Amino acid sequence: MAFLADALSRIKPSATIALTQKARDLKAQGRDVISLSVGEPDFDTPDNIKNAAIEAIRRGETKYTPVAGIPQLREAVARKFKRENELDYKPSQTIVGTGGKHVIYNAFLATLNPGDEVVIPAPYWVSYPEIVALCGGTPVIVDTYIDKGFKLQAEDLERAITPKTKWVLLNSPSNPSGAAYTWDELKAVTDVLVRHPHVWVMTDDMYEHLVYGDFKFVTPAQVEPNLYERTLTINGVSKAYAMTGWRIGYAGGPETLIKAMDTVQGQQTSGTSSISQWAAVEALDGPQDHLAVFRNAFQGRRDLIVSILNQTTGITCPTPEGAFYVYPSIVPLIGKTAPSGKKIETDEDFVLELLATEGVATVHGSSFGSGPNFRVSYATSNDKLEEAGNRIQRFVNSLR
Ligand SMILES: Cc1ncc(COP(=O)(O)O)c(C=O)c1O
User: Fold this and answer.
1) From the CB of 366, is ligand 1 less than 6 Å away?
2) The pLDDT value given to residue 10
3) Most Cβ neighbours (<10 Å): which of 77, 117, 209, 268?
4) Aminotransferase class I/classII large domain: from which residue to which, for each copy (predicted)?
5) Is residue 178 lining ligand 1, measured as CB closer than 6 Å?
């Protein structure tokens, strides 16, 4: 349609939102649907955080806030980076936005010129290439491999960097693969980046607190202090504190970049919700005991779904270190035919047929830039996971 902006033709709608909506529509028609497509914890926001928001309303904290966030939250963010990541950011080196997605968007809006390249390892979170394209940049996708744990390899990164590379975007633990880098694995990547001083590092640490067993989370500027001056460390409260609807994300980085992002945000959304910001102060500064409760529940669910999927002939499911997703491969199932007569030619055919016949909603790997795989979100109860796992098995066994 001629009325619409050209920029729109460069982006795709979010496949995860589309699949979640399809599942909702089927449910509304009375179908028994189990949704494993959503990217949010099924837990409720802890009460101490809700109460901090209610108190903020009662105190009249209901006005515009400074664009980059209330001073109390920027101080809490600086304390968090020091306490959990050994990173020294002054409050003036932090910014608060309307969710992590907004912070990523503003960082690109503030820095990308036409032709600038952003290196993105695949499988990637669906929004990364689209945000880069909307901001006028060029996404450069670098494949990772299941037998390397879906982690970016130094030599592949080295090959992808050109004089036009402006950013490398890292995400550990990853949406959709759940892969998280150990210190040594991340050091191999940062060693490459040290050799390319024109390249900046954007790290999306949204799933930091969701790592399992004795895995230790690390972030690039911590592993390689030489990158501190050109790293934007992004995080948020959405996933760790079960606060997806509150819309708070934040970042720490060099002051000049933060100031540029502040300028962009000032002509755009301004400061995010005052009430959510006070809730986030409590999330970061208050008791942290629920983190272990969430983590233990997720770890049990991960082990359950990985075990069921791996008992299914044709599915190979690695055990990821973190997040609440698994990303099984379905190579042997491509080319088979479902009882409906539908031929499964792609991973998208697989997830659509699975949803139509068994009422299990997942997301196809091709929307994350790598397949044939599908993403299963295990942010749901053990009972539902078990039932969904059985339905997936039944579906796969019905393919001929
Ligand atoms: C990797 C990753 N980064 C960022 C976000 C966005 O988080 P927020 O809800 O805070 O915008 C998500 C949400 O799904 C995500 O998976």
Assistant:
1) no
2) 80
3) 77
4) 32-392
5) no
Whether 249 lines ligand 1, by a CB cut-off of 6 Å, is yes
Res 187: pLDDT: 98
Closest by CA to 94, choosing from 61, 70, 116, is 70
- Is pLDDT at 13 greater than 90 in this prediction? no
* Dihedral sign (CA 246, 109, 200, 116): positive
Query: 101 CA distance to ligand 1 centroid (A)?
Result: 6
Residue 58 lies in a domain: no
Residues 329-334 have a mean pLDDT of 98
- Counted domains in the chain: 2
Cα dihedral value 391, 394, 399, 400, nearest 10: 180
Q: What is the mean pLDDT of residues 329-348?
A: 97
Residues in the chain: 400
Residue 151 maps to a domain: yes
What value does the mean pLDDT take over residues 80-100?
A: 98
Based on the fold, state whether residues 232 and 360 are members of the same structural domain.
no
From 285, 300, 329, the end of a domain falls on: 285
Q: Examine the fold and report which residue of 232, 250, 285 is the final residue of a domain before the chain moves on.
A: 285
Report the separation in Å between the CA atom of 381 and the middle of ligand 1, taken as the mean of its atom positions.
21
Between 13 and 172, where is the model more confident?
172
Lowest mean per-residue pLDDT among 17-21, 180-184, 276-280: 17-21
Do residue 266 and residue 301 come from a single domain? no
> Given the DSSP bridges, would you call strands 374-377 and 325-326 parallel, antiparallel or unpaired?
antiparallel
Enclosing domain of residue 163: 63-285
